[in-house]
Amino acid sequence: MFYQLLLVALVFLMAISTLNNVSDAEGETARTVRRALSIIAVAVLVAFLVFHRLALREGMIGTMAVGFVALAAIGVYRLRAQGRRTAQTVGVYLGSNAVEGRSAKDSSGRELPLYEPVFEYEYGGEMYCTPARDLYFSRTLYRLFHRGRRYRLWLDASNPWDYQCGPRSRYAWECFVLAAVFLAIAAMMFGTVRMQPAMAPDSLQTASAVAALLG
Prior knowledge:
The chain is an alpha+beta fold. The protein contains six helices and five strands; from the N terminus they run H-H-H-E-E-E-H-E-E-H-H. The chain has a five-stranded antiparallel beta sheet, with no helix packed on it. A hairpin with a 2-residue loop joins strand 2 and strand 3. The chain is elongated and about 60 Å long.
């Protein structure tokens, strides 16, 4: 049972961690999704404990199904956030510009102005110098980027002016691969349940199991 509970916890921790690599402008949405996933993880663990007393295999199927839905949803979220920016290049960080009228709340709830990092880069034999689509707090820019250094950029090949800082697509595909694994495990467990004869516990056994769980 310990290893099964550990598996469930690791799945949701992995899903939540994929939302950490976002710009500060996306931070509020990411924090909301992380809180929702945390609540789901706790609910699944509680449900798993109940299922462990009553129907272990059915509980694991439910756990795998919830993990599949959560990971697939995060993968779709990450792909939509990236859009068509799949081409790679390397750019030199030149500094940042304040974005007029744009702000966001940090993790402590303070409203702070947002800044856009500016890079110079080459793509398709042409030189470009334009702000990135990512928006950050000033302290984040100071921590992540240093003037004159080179950083990986992800851009839209059909519109090289449209780009973001840092890789994103790999996180989405990791989520989809993990979601597929959990779906396969759930399908195998469901097939095993269907092949086995149903053995429903009588009312006394069920009442005893629930009483043992609660007390």
